[in-house]
Amino acid sequence: MSAIKIKLRENDLKQLKEVCESFNNDPGELINVLHKAQGIFGYLPAEVQEVVAQELKVPVAKVYGVVTFYSFFTMVPRGKYPISVCTGTACYVRGAEKVLDEFKRILKVPVGETTSDGKFSIAGLRCVGACGLAPVVLVGDKTYGRVAPDGVKEILKEYEDK
Amino acid sequence: MEKMKIKIDNRVVEVEEGTTILEAARKIDIDIPTLCYMNLGDMGIEHKPGGCRICVVEVEGRRNLAPSCATDCHDGMEVKTHSIRVLNARRTVMELMLSDHPFECLTCAKSGNCDLQSMAIKFGIREVPYEGEKSTYKPDTSPSILRDMDKCIMCRRCEKMCNEVQTVGVLSGINRGFESVVAPAFERNLDHSECTYCGQCVAVCPTAALTEVDHTNQVLRALADPTKTVVVQTAPAVRAALGEEFGMEPGTLVTGKMVAALKQLEFDYVFDTDFAADLTIMEEGAEILGRLGKFLSGDKSVKLPVLTSCCPGWVNFFEYHFSDMLDIPSTARSPQQMFGAIAKTYFAEKIKKDRKDMVVVSIMPCVAKKYECTREEFATDNNPDVDFSISTRELANLIKRANIDFNKLPDEEFDGPMGESTGASVIFGTTGGVIEAATRSAYEMHTGKKLEKVDFDQLRGMEGIREATVDFDGFPLKIGIAHGLGNARKLLEDIRAGKSEFHAIEIMACPGGCIGGGGQPLHHGNSAILKARQKAIYQEDAGKPIRKSHENPSIIKLYEDFLGEPMSEKAHHLLHTRYFGRARQIVIETDVKEE
Ligand code: SF4
Ligand code: SF4
Ligand code: SF4
Ligand code: FES
Predict the structure, then answer these.
(1) With contact defined as beta carbons under 8 Å apart, do B86 and B57 qualify?
(2) Does domain B3-82 have CATH number 3.40.50.10860?
(3) Closest approach of A147 to chain B, Cα-based (Å)
(4) A111 lies within 8 A of chain B by CB
(5) Mean pLDDT by 10 residues, chain B (595 residues)
(6) What's the sign of the alpha-carbon dihedral B193, B197, B202, B208?
(7) Does one domain contain both A86 and A119?
(8) In a domain, A3, yes or no
(9) Residue A2: its pLDDT value, please?
């Protein structure tokens, strides 16, 4: 019955409003605004979507509809080391799925989510064009080629003390 | 416009440019099944997303089958609507849709009234060869509406109503592919959104994905409880639609049969919300005249126009979207709530009952009224003025469950005193009716003259926004009318911008007003039904011996014995309300430290 309150930090709000303004608060630019916002915050939490909705004068349900429709938008913060496993055809054929499963098993999070310590997040990835190295895994900016399921532990070990 | 000839199933039909194959076929009574398509012509609402592909037809010279609802005719086109290829394609579409649908027809709230079920029957579906994973979602219960997205077929009609017709924008298609569904933002429940509970999404949903919250069992329990005195009130629009649930022609008035059925269901007192509608006119009329008088004498603290406030869907809408203008609507409660307040005070005293031993049930064309019953300001010591509100559809279910042969019931009369009403109160059920009723009384109160003609034709009709000027003995009273929240928004934005010249505005949330309410028998996309109901309402008005609210003898007595006069302190306490600003607020969070 009472009004819905959306809490935001002052600086974040200011930045977001600037982004919206840079697109003239044009509802037709919704996707671009969201893209830019995700660039700043790393993800699109509900509060960010609320502000975008208010500034662009579109229903927040619509904004959420767009965010959930496009896979490049995410509502959960990515981990410090985002892990991407290529699921393009070549990688798939060479067992990328098993590698992905192994990451999920060890880190105990599904695809699209982040470990509770905020360190890792897992995502599937379309072909990265490194098919010669299939299956390919990216951790942050670092590329690992010809990864087998039993190599997953070793990769994660590299980040243990970081 | 250019005319063209096309051939459908070997029959020639002449159509205008821009006509779809579906429309052309319907013109010559060729039936093409549809699911996602919806056309409420009289309301100017058309939805043709071309999504479900149940309506496909074969067009000569084209490789692919075409969705007839979204494909325009071309001159010389030849169409087949039931070739083997078409029938097979439709069956496949149907089977795929059913493969992700729960098989719960026996116990489903929509059974017997579901477009998907009717289609399955029509296609003679006996098995579903595709066995797939079924999508599941958490059910969402609010005070008025139940969402069960497992039954959603993604026709997106609800989204159309909520976004484009009502401009509330609570529902949106989310996710993609197999997971796609229609939901409020962040998949929160409806009661965490700006939903007005107008129920227009429910009214168009072809399946049981969206239904009203069912209160029939609570009502039956109250009726069975010997310690409770159960009082029922029936809204004006119910009597013009209830018959449809029993196979009668749309527009059949069933007032007497409805009363008889309620008596058979053993309600202790069968009263009429129309009585309370007359009361609303006394209060709202006095308020309009009071505000108008002050305004004209130059009092700057008074704002015009006065907006009617008897529609709870509309009240929710302005509390969310126009919270800067809460002083403009009339403070008069809705007739449902006025009834409850009087029943549990004045009438309770009369029959010497404590309000706690009384149960007030309302029969409404509306699902927003369910929510309205839960508002705290309409309760005394946690005891609500109206305990349960059930829809026209729910009443029909109760009657069927009790095995009452509705069509054969003799006509019966409402009980007194709260069953007495005038023609003015009946027309509350249609767009234009509340303001016409108010005009009839306000005119006589203001001018001291008797109206020669009580019908104000200039206020009637179905256009979404209407305006009229009524001559108040030399003073031109400017009246605005809007139905459907999208239309209301336009009038409200004019007021906000200082561009409105109206003195009084009537607003109803549902297209057509309460006759098209979210709790009425489903129109299944046929908007002619609403017109028939409207006609019935005016017919009932014309047949009433008394047609002005202030001449209702039971209302006059209520003021004499209990309330004093309109806008008295007692009347204020029992019959008026206040509004709450509920706009979304963005607040700065200060207690979070920067990392
Ligand atoms: S009840 Fe009305 S406001 Fe609420 S979701 Fe349905 S159409 Fe939208
Ligand atoms: S909830 Fe009903 S109206 Fe809305 S998309 Fe699903 S099936 Fe269609
Ligand atoms: S127009 Fe009537 S049925 Fe519709 S929400 Fe308002 S009161 Fe209810
Ligand atoms: S009815 Fe034509 S595509 Fe659904």
Answers:
(1) yes
(2) no
(3) 31
(4) no
(5) 90 94 96 93 86 95 95 96 96 92 94 95 88 81 96 95 96 87 94 96 97 97 98 98 98 98 98 98 95 90 93 97 95 98 98 97 98 97 97 98 98 97 98 97 93 94 95 92 97 95 96 97 90 97 97 98 97 97 84 47
(6) positive
(7) yes
(8) no
(9) 59
Residue B27's CB is within 10 A of a number of other CB atoms, namely 13
Residues A59 and A108 in one domain: no
Confirm whether A21 is domain-assigned. yes
Nearest to A61 among B184, B587, B589 (CB): B184
Question: What's the residue count for chain B?
Answer: 595
pLDDT at A51: 95
CA neighbours closer than 13 Å in the CB half-sphere of residue B228 = 19
Indicate left, alpha or beta for B112 from its phi (over 0: left) and psi (-120 to 50: alpha). Answer: left
How do beta strands B78-80 and B56-59 pair? antiparallel
Q: What is the dihedral of CA B318, B324, B328, B332, to 10 degrees?
A: 50
Q: What is the pLDDT of residue B593?
A: 47
* Ligand having the closest approach to the CA of B135: 2
Q: Please report the pLDDT score of residue A141 as a whole number.
A: 80
Predicted pLDDT at B595? 39
- Residue B499 tokens read as 């561009």
Tell me the whole-structure pTM to 2 decimals.
Answer: 0.91
- A101, A143: one domain: yes
Say whether both A105 and A152 belong to one domain.
yes
Which residues of chain A are modeled with pLDDT < 50? 1
Q: Report the CATH fold assignment for B216-575.
A: Rossmann fold (3.40.50)
ipTM of the complex: 0.88
Taking the C-alpha atoms of residue B326 and residue B304, their distance in angstroms, rounded to an integer, is 12
Q: Does the residue A162 lie in any domain?
A: no
- Within 10 Å of residue B493's Cβ, how many Cβ atoms? 13
Best A2, A4, A80 member to test B by mutation, with max B CBs in 10 Å, is A4
Q: Residue B28 is encoded by which pair of tokens?
A: 């010559």
CA dist B50 and B34 (Å) reads 10
Shortest CA distance to A104 belongs to which of A91, A88, A122, A116? A122
pLDDT of res. B586: 84
C-alpha to C-alpha distance for B370 and A88, rounded to whole angstroms = 52
- Asked whether residue A43 falls in the same domain as residue A111, the answer is no
What's the topology of domain B98-212? Alpha-Beta Plaits (3.30.70)
Substitution site in B43, B336, B366, B430 for ligand 3 pocket (most atoms within 8 Å of beta carbon): B366
Q: Which domain holds residue A63?
A: 10-69
